[in-house]
Design brief:
This protein is of the alpha/beta class. Helix content is 41%, strand content 18%. The strands form four sheets. It has a five-stranded parallel beta sheet with strand order 3-2-4-5-6, sandwiched between helices. A five-stranded mixed beta sheet has the order 7-8-9-11-10, with helices on both faces. A five-stranded mixed barrel has the order 14-15-16-18-17. Strand 10 (424-427) and strand 11 (431-437) form a beta hairpin.
Length: 581
């Protein structure tokens, strides 16, 4: 495909690519048949929306996209057991993972059960001391004090731990890839069980929990009982879906779209307090969930108290919420410092091995296990390859991996675990975790690389920057941005629209903070647009534009609305740049 604006190698080394000929024709068809603006039509075409479906796509119906929960294996059993526990006012414990998805899933259940005056016990394992998922001592202890244990965002591979929960029923509500056998739980509801054939494998755990509550509500109504308003819980489902990088297509897109509306009402005191701590000045969008709120909630599980995020999301006490939000924000600042140190070492090590291998990996003594997943994401973004980062301590390594589109990292790690090269490991296509004996580290990484090579990971080229078209500053208005947002929410599986601004002069450029750049671009007709480039001085963009010497540049990025100071205006979030020759 011809490079857009002739940019075959931008400042960040990427080729700029516009719409294909087929998508271009589809965009014209959408605009003609619907009367939608050409810019929005191009975004819809790139997302693969047919002209006859365009209007419906802009207003997705959750009711139309929701499946009957009973299509999932064990769902009816799980829903009936929870219904029974509510009717008998039994004691219930929730064992949750320590990330956003686990915390949101736990908060969903706590909030729901609160309607029946059932104070569920929350247990979140410590990432360092206990590791991921149910463990035998914790499950045995919970079973001794509760009638029912619900494991959320974990448990599918926890055979021994669930067997230890003697005297209590255990329900697993999860989405991680299942093994050849299931644990001895009463019910395992998981769209990624090996014997599942549903089309909903992209749901996060909170999505699975939500569907379970739909089934419970149905049971309660059949029994003549009043039921809680599940729509009010969709803010938690939206947060988890975006933070867990689940594809924002189909049902997920509808859940997030509705959940963002619920979140905008600020009825959940924990999320309201966290939004204030993150200094969000506008209605929440998927970017805020993934890059402002999500990292703060994760910070508790990464380097602080593991259950802090879940407790924040579940609390109804505004003062408690404010204190926890402030604590999580401080932990997030601390996490950034730790991450920066590990990232520097990991980047150096991975670069020495080469970024062109099917697997990019790094391991180091005493690297904090709470940040290895984030650093793996940075390696993945730099190399456009699956990446794993491992912290070594006491003869063992605990690591986290992130993959790229089209490469199933979770299945490769599961294979290595079955082959005995890993002490344990699992996850899903785009993210996975592992524990490995230090003396088997090299062999395990070699085998993983071999498995990923068979999937074609070594043949992935530099990541192209895909653009929906070009636009001039004078055409970039708040109305245009609002029109484009109609095609959202955007995220994994549904990338946000990106546009090029051709041949711009740099009218103003100034460093902001340590690594960001604020600038104003101006075209030949005098049209201007303010822009921000985050992390500009971590790469070549900052120095290039700060020392522009009057040169013209093609700019590329996302269009946003800036509401700072109460004034609404359009701006560019700059992501790439190329000299305009």
């Amino acid at each position: 495909m011809t490079a857009f604006l002739g940019v075959s190698a931008s400042a960040t080394g990427r080729k700029w690519v516009g719409l294909s000929e087929n998508d271009d024709r589809l965009a014209q068809s959408i605009a003609q048949q619907t009367g939608l603006p050409a810019t929005l039509a191009r975004t819809l075409a790139r997302l693969g929306v047919a002209a006859e479906n365009a209007t419906a796509y802009l207003a997705p119906s959750l009711r139309d996209l929701m499946p009957n929960p009973s299509i999932f294996r064990d769902m009816d059993t799980a829903a009936e057991r929870i219904t029974q526990a509510i009717a008998k006012h039994q004691t219930i414990a929730i064992f949750a993972d320590y990330d956003v998805d686990g915390g949101s899933s736990a908060a969903l259940l706590i909030d729901y059960l609160r309607n029946f005056n059932i104070p569920a016990t929350l247990f979140v394992p410590d990432r360092i001391d206990e590791g991921y998922g149910p463990n035998e001592p914790a499950m045995a202890d919970l079973a001794a004090r509760h009638d029912l244990i619900i494991c959320v965002d974990c448990g599918t591979l926890s055979h021994d731990a669930i067997a230890a929960a003697k005297g209590a029923d255990v329900i697993v509500l999860d989405h991680h890839m299942g093994g050849e056998t299931l644990p001895p739980a009463l019910a395992v509801v998981n769209p990624n069980r090996q014997d599942e054939d549903s089309e909903f494998g992209n749901l996060c755990a909170a999505g699975v929990v939500f569907l379970t509550l739909v089934a419970v509500n149905r049971n309660l109504r059949e029994n003549g009982e009043k039921t809680p308003d599940l729509m009010a819980l969709l803010d938690l489902v939206a947060l988890a879906t975006v933070a867990d990088v689940a594809p924002l297509t189909g049902l997920n897109r509808a859940l997030v779209r509705q959940g963002l509306k619920v979140m905008g009402q600020r009825n959940r005191v924990g999320l309201a307090a966290l939004s204030d701590a993150a200094r969000l000045t506008s209605a929440p969008n998927s970017y805020h969930l993934g890059f402002a709120l999500g990292p703060r909630i994760n910070a508790g599980g990464r380097i602080g108290k593991a259950d802090l995020g879940a407790r924040l999301l579940a609390t109804t006490n505004p003062d408690e919420a404010q204190a926890m939000a402030d604590q999580l924000s401080q932990l997030n600042d601390d996490r950034r410092e730790i991450e920066a140190q590990v990232r520097l070492l990991a980047m150096e090590q991975a670069e020495e091995r080469g970024f062109d291998a099917p697997l990019v990996w790094a391991a180091g003594k005493n690297w904090h296990p709470g940040v290895v997943g984030i650093v793996a994401s940075r390696l993945k973004e730099t190399s456009n390859r699956p990446a794993i980062v491992i912290g070594l301590e006491g003869g063992e390594g605990k690591g986290s991996g992130r993959s790229v589109t089209g490469i199933d990292l979770g299945s490769a790690i599961a294979t290595c675990a079955r082959e005995g090269l890993l002490l344990k490991g699992g996850g899903h296509k785009m993210a996975a975790g592992l524990t490995v004996a230090e003396d088997k580290l090299e062999a395990a990484m070699d085998r993983l690389g071999e498995l990923l090579r068979k999937q074609g990971a070594d043949k992935i080229g530099p990541k192209d920057l895909r653009l929906d078209g070009s636009v001039m500053p004078s055409a970039i208005t708040t109305e245009l941005v609002e029109q484009l947002e109609m095609a959202g929410p955007f995220g994994a599986g549904a990338p946000a629209p990106r546009f090029a601004l051709p041949a711009q002069k740099i009218a103003f450029a100034k460093r902001a903070g340590e690594s960001h750049l604020r600038l104003t671009a101006q075209d030949a007709n005098g049209g201007r647009i303010d822009a921000i480039c985050f992390g500009a001085f971590d790469g070549p963009i900052g120095p290039m534009l700060e020392n522009h010497k009057g040169q013209s540049f093609h700019l590329a990025g996302r269009l946003e609305i800036d509401e700072w100071g109460g004034r609404r205006k359009a701006k560019l979030r700059l992501e790439d740049v190329a000299p305009a020759e």
